[in-house]
Amino acid sequence: MLLRPVRETEEDAETVHLVAKASFGASHALKGDAPSEPSSEAPSEDGSESLADRRRARSQEKIRHLVRTDPAGSWIAEDETGQAVGAAQSLIREGTWGLALLVVLPGAQGKGVGNALLRRTMEYGRACLRGVICCSRHPAAARVYRQAGFELHPTIRMRGVVDRVRLGTPEGAAVEGSARDRDLLDSIDRRLRGGAHGPDHEFLLRHCRLVVADDLAGSGYCYMTDQGKVELLAATSRRLATRVLSAALLGVEEGVVAEVQDVTAGQQWAVDVGLAAGLELRAEGFLCFRGMRPPAPYIPSGAFL
Questions:
Q1: pTM confidence score
Q2: CATH number for the domain including 11?
C-alpha cells in the first residue's frame, strides 16, 4: 500500500469523491440507512443539472478547497496496482485540527488502510492543541477514534418537514448574512472553538444560506443548505443559537425535509427547537474531541468541523 498526497486536480477530486461515495454507500447499507444521494443521475426536465450532479460538483469543489488550503492534510491510499482504495482529508484552522474525511473502499476495509490514513492526517496536526472529528455510527469508527485519544460524545440527528406554526417566530432579529460578516463569524468561532474557520466561510457562503443575529444580547450564525441541512451553527448564547436555528428552519422551502446533525446532549436548546419544529429525533454517531471541551452553543460542519 502506498500513501500519496491528493493533488488539486479534477482527476484526484473525482477519485476521492468516488471512493467516498462507495464507502458511504456501504456504510449506509451496513447501518440499514437509506442512501444519502438520489440514485438517478438523469438531468431535470428543463435540461438543468440533476441534484446528484450538483452534489457531485460540490463534493469535488470541497475536496479541492481542502487540498488548496491544507495540501499536507489530504492523502490517497493506493494498492499495489495503483488503484485508490482509501482517502483522508484533514485541516488546521488557527491551532484547531479537524478530520474532514476518512473513507476506505469496502473490499479494503480491515486491512490497515484506515489506520494508516488516520495516522498520516494526525501527523499533520501533531502541533495542534485541539482536535475535532465528526464520527458516524459505523461500528469500527468510534473504536478507532477513541484509541487515538479522542473523547466520544454521543449525538442526535433531527429530521423532518418543518411545522412553521408550532415553531413560531424567533424572538429577536435574524437577518441574511454575507461576506461582510466574515469578521463577526471568525470572532464567534474563536470564542467557541479556539480557532476561526477562516477560508471555509468563503466556501460555505458560496453554497449555503447564512442567517446572522448580532445585537446587545450577543451574536450567532447558522448556515443552511438548499436541501434543508444545517451545515454549521455557532452562537455566544443559547438564546442567540435558538434564534438563528429557528430562523434558518423557517427559511427552508415548503415540503423540504430539514436535517440537523451532530447535536450533543449538551445542546438541549437545539433539541427544543427541533421538537418545536416537529422534527424526529434519533441517536446517530459521535462527536470526538481532543484537548478541548465540546463547544456550545455549537453544531459543527461534518467537513469543516
A1: 0.91
A2: 3.40.630.30
Q: How far apart are CA 124 and CA 127, in angstroms?
A: 8
Report the distance separating Cα 174 and Cα 247, nearest Å: 7
pLDDT digits over 12-57, tens only?
Answer: 999 999 999 999 875 544 444 554 444 334 444 555 567 788 889 9
How many domains is the chain built from?
Answer: 2
Query: Do 247 and 211 contact (CB within 8 A), yes or no?
Result: yes
State which amino acid sits at residue 43. P
Q: What is the separation, in whole angstroms, between the first and last Cα of the chain?
A: 29
Q: How far is CA 278 from CA 140, 163, 286, in A?
A: 32, 6, 23
1, 77 Cβ separation under 8 angstroms = yes
C-beta neighbour count of 184 within 10 angstroms: 15
Domain extent, residue 169, equals 157-283
